[in-house]
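$ fold --in a.seq
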Amino acid sequence: MNAKQGRETTATMDAGFLPPITAPVHGSTRYLRSQVEVSDGILRWETPAALFGVVPIGTRKTEIPVSAVATLTVRRTVQPLRLALGLAWVVIPLLLGQWWWAVPSTMFGVWVVAISLGPQLEVTTTQGVIRRAPFCFSHRFDAELYAEVVLDIAEDVRNRA
């Protein structure tokens, strides 16, 4: 085996596999976890589908070829629908005079609002398709490092093609 064959083998192995990263969606919802991995040259992630960002109702799976990844970043985003629903859980009982319901409703509403403000791992494909996976604030650095490695692998795969 010459040096060129050795480099090709290493690049193929790197492009084919990257250990998964699993992190909670939010610090207060540790039972909801996002998982991202690179396997067989495909970026795969599984994120929980959740009602109000709190109640799990299933999972969403996304698969994108690594060569099609244009950008992968961690962004702090606001999810407007969840934010509006959380605020509604706080305001509606107060407007209706339902004081007995106001305390638990306010606690739930504040929880939903806090979850709607978390960071997300965002991938943009070369075709312009955008996919997002929520990540906990405390795992943001891990997600940023993972994104850097995936972008390096994607660039390497595109350069070899």
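$ fold --in b.seq
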Amino acid sequence: MANLLAELKDDFEAKTRYELAAKSFVVLHNTHPESREYREELAKTYNNLASHLLSSDSSSNADLLQDAVAFNRKALDLFEGLAEPLPGLRVELANAYHTEALALLRSDKTAEAIERFQTSASTLQAVLRQYPDNTDYLFRYAAALTYLGYYYATAEQPIETAKIRELMADILPRLRADHRRIIEINGRYKVIQGTH
């Protein structure tokens, strides 16, 4: 429900629903600490709440940014404990690192954000070593590299940008057509390619 409200841009109601969901999962997690499912759902809810706060119209509010960072840290802590044996959770962990990077960018901490984008990309790369033919994982990796390459390019780091450009040249032909198109029309990708 919170995801739907977020898509409809009902920021206050979506935030309220995410918070209620988080409280429910905290109770379930505390009651059943051995349950991976409850920890995973709590981590996803925290990360969704952090993402929502970062993307809401009032995301420039310093208190909301601080809340987003705090919820994201809770998600990361939970995902890190869950992620090692399960590739799907490592992908969620990478998503949480990505969300943390976006929060750091909003806080004008570009160097730290780039480190988190790197961590997100390397986490996805490790998953791909295990599942090289999974096109959804490959797409998420390409998206993570697009962010990383964009910030390398805008920070005028030509060697790192060239490395990302090479990786993308290898990845794009392996993506599904719809995923490839999403990457190719992305303004960040165009910056990496020097065509924007």
